[in-house]
Amino acid sequence: MSTKATPRISNRSADRYRGYSDLSIVYEGSSENIPVHVPDVSTTGMFINTSRHFPEGAVIKVRFRLVRSNLEITARAEVRYCLTGVGIGVQFVDISAEDQAAIEQELQISKLP
C-alpha cells in the first residue's frame, strides 16, 4: 500500500510570518492586560494565542514589533473566530498602508533562501 503524503492546500488569502515580538492587545473599552503568546501575522490579520474568550465581532487594538525592521505596528482588528482556550483569529480593520507594507516586506525577506 502506498503512503504518499497529500499536499496541504491553504485557504488563507495572505502569507503568514512569525518574526515579531512585544505583542500586546487591548479589548476596546477596557484597560485590562490580556495575556497572549506570539502567534503569526499577515498583511490582513493574525492568529493570537490566548486563553481569554472573545466574541466574534469584538474589536481589539493590537501592537507588536517586527523583528527585522524593529518597526512597531499598531492596528485595530476584529475577531473573526475564537477557539476557546486556544486563541483568536483577527482581521485588521484599521491599519496604515505603511504598516501593511512593512509587514509585506518582512514576509518577502523571510521567504528568501
Taking the sheet with the most strands, its summary is:
6 strands, antiparallel
The CATH class turns out to be: Mainly Beta
CA distance, first residue to last residue: 35 Å
Strand order of the largest sheet: 1-4-5-6-3-2
Count, helices: 1
Order of helices and strands: EEEEEEH
| Average pLDDT, all residues | 78
Rounded radius of gyration (Å)? 15 Å
Query: What is the name of the CATH architecture?
Result: Beta Barrel
Structural class: mainly beta
Beta percentage is: 35-45%
CATH topology: Thrombin, subunit H
Q: Helicity, in percent?
A: 10-25%
Give the uncertain stretches in residue-range form.
1-10
Large-scale geometry: globular
Q: Would you count the extended β strands for me?
A: 6
The count of domains is 1
- The CATH superfamily turns out to be predicted glycosyltransferase like domains
Topology:
Layout: E1 20-27, E2 37-41, E3 45-49, E4 59-66, E5 72-83, E6 87-94, H1 97-111
Antiparallel strand pairs: 1-4, 2-3, 3-6, 4-5, 5-6
